Amino acid sequence: MAKGWLKAIAANRDLHSAIRIVGLVDVNPEAARALAADFDIGDALIGSDLDAVLAETTPDILFDIVVPAARRNVVATGLRHGCHVLSEKPMAISLQAGRELIRLADEAGKLHAVVQNRRFISGVRRIRRFIESGAIGEVTGIHADFFIGAHFGGFREEMDNVLLLDMAIHTFDAARFIADKKPLAVYCHENNPRGSWYQHGAAATAIFELSDDVTFTYRGSWCAEGANTSWESEWRIVATRGTLLWDGAENFRAHKVAGSDGFLRELSPIEVPEPADPRETHGHASVIADFVAAIHTGQKPETASNDNINSLAMVFAAIESARTRQRVTI
């Protein structure tokens, strides 16, 4: 993922001119040296001791791109050194740990935000703008399907609740953003299907209750071979006067009711407009740019941890529901 972040910075002219990488830290310094060579940042300090590298380089920002179990100590160390911190998702391995990071950032007077890169894509921004326009009325249901046979190898295949904790948060966060509603409760069933190459929890089905009587359903699997969806999921947004379908790529179909007679009402198609601001559609680069802008302006970044914890809460409530086989309030 560090390579993905650096690619995003290198490819964005504004970020490339605004950000200078002064240090790279890895438990394996050779990996950091290889990364420095790949991106021609040979003047960056390389080390395996985060404290020492931060003390010597005194950076403004720490990019926290570690496995979830290491996140708390890395963020706390960065804040202690006076850094603003932008973290990979998920923001923490528990809600308690997430609340602690919010507290530490508040005490330090620094920003802490989370890379929810998949809310910063064209499709998600288009849907949010479309819903806000009222073109199909008020949203009543959001439904997302995610089915991919992903062979990562490495730490994900050893994780508990791997789909819910490592991937579903993208879809949960996008649904929360699209609906602009508060998550209230969830019932979730999780399993590890026959043939799964993951240790635990490669598939899940969840029903979320959102505020204003909106329902969000999620069906997902990371060991579903044969008919992959988009990484962004396939979506159906149902509203009081129509429906929007999105395949997670470039295909949008929206129709609203155009007649008042008949068993099935006559429908008319509606165009789904482009995002209001194209700068918000470049994934990692857009999240990083939003974070840097927030530092300069003093405004809250869109994915600030004290907001993103609501998406994390959806994840842990789903995990708790799957464990207890009960509806869980959020």
UniProtKB/TrEMBL annotation:
The keyword Oxidoreductase applies. The keyword Oxidoreductase applies. InterPro entries: Gfo/Idh/MocA-like_OxRdtase_N (IPR000683), Gfo/Idh/MocA_oxidoreduct (IPR051317), GFO_IDH_MocA-like_dom (IPR055170), NAD(P)-bd_dom_sf (IPR036291). Residues 124-244 form the GFO/IDH/MocA-like oxidoreductase domain. It comes from the Bacteria. Keywords: Oxidoreductase. Residues 13-113 form the Gfo/Idh/MocA-like oxidoreductase N-terminal domain. SUPFAM superfamilies: Glyceraldehyde-3-phosphate dehydrogenase-like, C-terminal domain, NAD(P)-binding Rossmann-fold domains. Pfam families: GFO_IDH_MocA, GFO_IDH_MocA_C3. PANTHER family: CONSERVED EXPRESSED OXIDOREDUCTASE (EUROFUNG) (PTHR43708), OXIDOREDUCTASE (PTHR43708:SF8). This is Gfo/Idh/MocA family oxidoreductase. It comes from Sinorhizobium numidicum.
